[in-house]
Structure formats: C-alpha cells, structure tokens
Amino acid sequence: MRPLTPRRILGICAALAGVLFIESVVSLRLGAYPISILDIVKTIFNGALGRWNDVPDEYKSVIFGIRLPRIALGILVGSSLSTAGAGFQALLRNPLADPYVLGVSSGAALGAIVSLIIAPHTVGAVQLAAFIGAAATVGVVYFLGRRGGQLDSATLLLAGIVAASFLSAVIMFLMTTLSGRDFRGMAFWLMGDLQTPPPTQNVAAWFAFLFTIFAIAAGAIYTTASDLNLILTGEQEASHLGVNVNRVKLVVYLAASVLTGLAVSVSGAIGYVGLLVPHAMRFLFGTDYRLLIPTSIIGGAIAIVLADTLARTIAAPTELPVGAMTALAGAPVFIYLMRRRMR
Amino acid sequence: MSATPGNGASVMAQPLPHSPNPRVRLKVEQASYAYSATDRTAPKFTLGPVSFEANQRELVAILGPNASGKSTLLKLLAGLMKPLSGRVEVDGAEVSAMDLRTRAQRIALVSQESELLFPLRVWEYVLQGRYPYGRRLRFESAEDCLMAGNALAQVGADGLRDRWMDQLSGGEKQRVILARAMAQQPSLLLLDEPTQHLDIGGKVELLRRLRKLADENRYTVIVVTHELNLAAEFSDRIALLHKGKCLRIGTPEQVYERDVLEEVFDAPLEVEMRNTGRPRVLLRGR
What we know:
heterodimer; A: mainly alpha; ABC transporter involved in vitamin B12 uptake, BtuC; 14 helices; 1% strand; B: alpha/beta; Rossmann fold; four-stranded antiparallel sheet; 30% helix; globular; disordered N terminus
C-alpha cells in the first residue's frame, strides 16, 4: 500500500470537480424556462468575457440572475456543511457528529434571526451573528456532553438534541413577533432553502465575500488535517506523537463554527449533509483527513446541488425546501450508522 | 539493596555528579506528582518523590498493585504530566521542557489501546509513528516508509500491513502498536501494561521481543506490568511501587523479598531463587 501523495489528492479532486461541473450544467438546463446546453455554455462564455450584447436578455436573467447564483450558493453551503461535519466528527471524536444533529445549526439560525431583527440591513451582520450562535452552541453542547470529565458519545448526541429543541423553541418565540409575510419566508428558510436573495445589488461581490470566508475557514481546518488523523486514534496518543492537541481543537472548533454559521446564514438549517458526505467520502477514499477534507468540500457541493435540483424539479412548478430533500436521504443513513455503532 | 522507602534510590552503581555517564539515558530525580482534590470522582493521590536512572539497553519493569502510582509515574516519564517537584531527564534534557515533536522523537509511549473511531489499515497506523519527523501536512517520504517497513519487519508483522486494525488478534495488534512506537525511532520506549490482553504465549513473546529491542536497538525500555514472574525473567531492574511510594528499586533478586511482596500485593506469596539467578514468585498454598 502506497502512502498518500499530493498528486493522488489532486487527481481525485479533479475527477470530483468534473462530476460537479457536469451536474451544474445539467442543473442549469433544468427548470421552467428551457435552455439548450449549447446556449448555456455560450451564455456563460459571453457573460464571463463581458460581451453582454451577444446574450439574450431572458437568458441573462434566467442563468445569471436565478440559476447560477443558486448553484453557487448550493456549492458554498454544501462545501461548508461537509467540511464542518468532518471537523466536528474529529473534534468531538464522534462519527455521528453533524452541525444539524448537534444543534449547532439551530444556534446559528437563532443568531441569524436575532441579527435580522436587530440590524436587518447591515451586510455581514447575519454571518457574524450566525457564527457566534454556532460557536456558543458547540461550547454548551461540548460541556453538557461530558460524563465524568470525559466526552461521552451518547450524552453528547442527547445534549445536541436537547440544545436543538430548546433553540427551536426560542426561534419560534421570536418568530411570533414577526409579521405574517416575514413569518412564512422565515419558516421556509429555517427548513433549509437556497432561494434567499443576496442582500446587495452586487451579486459577484457578495459571493466573493462569502467564498473568502469559506476559503479561510476551510483552509484553517485543512492545515490541521494530519493532526486530526492522529487525534482520531486518541487525544493522549496524538499528544504523545507530537500533536499540539489543544491548538488543533481550538482551530477546528472556531473554523467549523464559522463554516456552520456561514452556511446557515445564507440557507437556513440544511440537515445531515455534514454527516452524509464525509461518511460517503470515507467509504470511497479512506479515512485520511488530508484527502477527506478536499473530497468532502467537493462532495458536499455535489450533494447540495443534486438535492436542490431535485427539490425544484420533482414537484415542479412547486418547489420543496432543499433541507427536506437532505433529511429524506440523511435520516435513514444516520439510523444505519447509529445501529452499526451500537452493535 | 540500599533503597529506603520513600526516596527509592537505586542500588546500581550511580555515576558521580561530576562525571556524567554517557550511557545514562533516563534520569528521574525526586520526581513527585499529586492529583488535585477538586476532582470529586477521584480521591486525592500523591506519587513520590521517586528517583532512579536507566541506561541504554536496559529493561526496567515498574511493578505494584492497582492504584500504586505506576501509570502516574509512566506519564511523568512520558512528559504527559509535569512533575510537581523534581525532574525527569532523557539524554540530559528535561522532558517537560521539550517541545512536543522533539519529545516524540525521543520517547515513544505504548499505552493501553484506545478505540479507533474509523477503520484504519495497519500500514497507515504504523506510518503515524513518523509524524514527529514530517513537515506541514506531513506527506510521508521514502525514508518514512522505510522506517515504518523496518519496524513492522522487526516485530514480525510484515504480512499484516494491508489488514484492518480492528480485524487483528490481541497479539497482532500489540505488535503493530509496538511497531508504530518503533517508527518514532525513540531512545526511550515506555509501555503501559502491554501484556494486559495477551495469553501467556503472547506475553512471553512480547517480553522476549522487548528484551531483544533493548539489546539490539539500544532502547531503554520501561514496562509497567502486573506480571511478577515475567518481569523477574526479562528485566534488568525493577521498581516496586506501593501507595504512591517507590518502595524498592534494584535487580529482581534484590527487590523480590517475600515480606515486601506479601505486604505490597496483600497475598500469601513465596519467592524462590532459580538456578538462573532470577527469582520466581509462587502463590503459597493453604
């Protein structure tokens, strides 16, 4: 068996990126307004070169105004949640850890809602508040999940469930203070939804802002990849092999909270992606975090773009929340993993 | 045996302070530790002060009943805890002051096995021992693979490299864990109850292997164990702990006195001297 090389990581990631690209083009094609693949490629090509005169107006608004931002948002959210999930699984030494299951998404959602009520028009405030909500929830769940000074797998999950239901109750309470129209939008958003419009006119700058945060947080987790491999075999052993365990845990804790807050702030609480994708990638490519994190980033994007495409085409013209799609696939897998672990 | 209860001074010829013996690898000087009484789940426990030295190619066994402080002493030697007083030195450098990677290059600890969260292959597990030598992201070099391969070969586990860790037998797993420690190329090898899950054949094989590693690789091996007879058979020296104090340190025949062992282990024991010069402990019949 050969050791992992950067070349192998790049090869696998390139293949996955190819899958994501093909999936995105197919997703761009699907929808109420039919556009051929050739026209999609032409439109994107011309748009990227700034030749807007060659692009029909309806194509411009459908592709650049609706479908492409939605796919970009899906990629951002899927990548963030999967990376956060992989990080939480190592940080909490629990294969069932996921931002949604642990209540971290609910904490981020609460933060986001509070900021929408207090400062609705400040760009970036929702992201910051969601991060604070996520980080605070991880902290609380971490301490509630300990038994006899040790992190206990089952207690941790129970703490997450309790935190999630408590936070949901607070969110419901806050939402009753909102008007009827806001309430419906908020309820849809809470179930996980990629239709949230950008808060500014400059969509490209908005996505650049979001993807920069993502790149910093995911990059921070990736710098600890080989440390996480050792932490998975036991914190004390890792420490004895030369890993600065506390520093690694702090980095992963903060970065995974940022990623969860980022995803929830733009799309609400989409569940189980952070659980499903890292496990699927482990099954396909092994448990080495140096490979697992990049494959989870792309795999998460593939998963959400797929889920969202299904969500908006299965019952067209009615759209389902994407969170409902991921929960349909994720809940059975969660139960399977839990039962296998209990045996 | 001149060690007195409490200070645990070695009876071996000690080097004078002004002429450091280059063979001395591990030096423990009046090291002590106390668990804080604030943790309500564990009673307050104090270890030491303990003093002893261990040389290259020496195998030292740490013996004692449960809760006598064996594992605490091992953690002090490993640098996982800083002694409250005194010092622990390896090759002249204080362990608790070493940076983590330097420490991992000099000291390897084989602890009681912990549960793996996700399945891992033997080869990946052994390569983890090369972590302290790597750069960021630590992609393994050809040298790392060579060292890991050598370590596997030396413990006779070459054929296991593509097997999953959770599908190994107790003896196989113990050999692989030992191989990971050897891949660290340490000068001091610490083992915490390595014989715990092994049958008698596995125990003898492991101790024989450790003896060989000490002789051939010039390791200093420190083993915490409950196996009185195996310790007497294979170790150069024995440290006997009781209630957080180091009662005796010396060669097996110096340490194994019937009265002392009976008091420490609270059992009717007999000590007989074999013609190899090593003592054997028997349970006294009714």
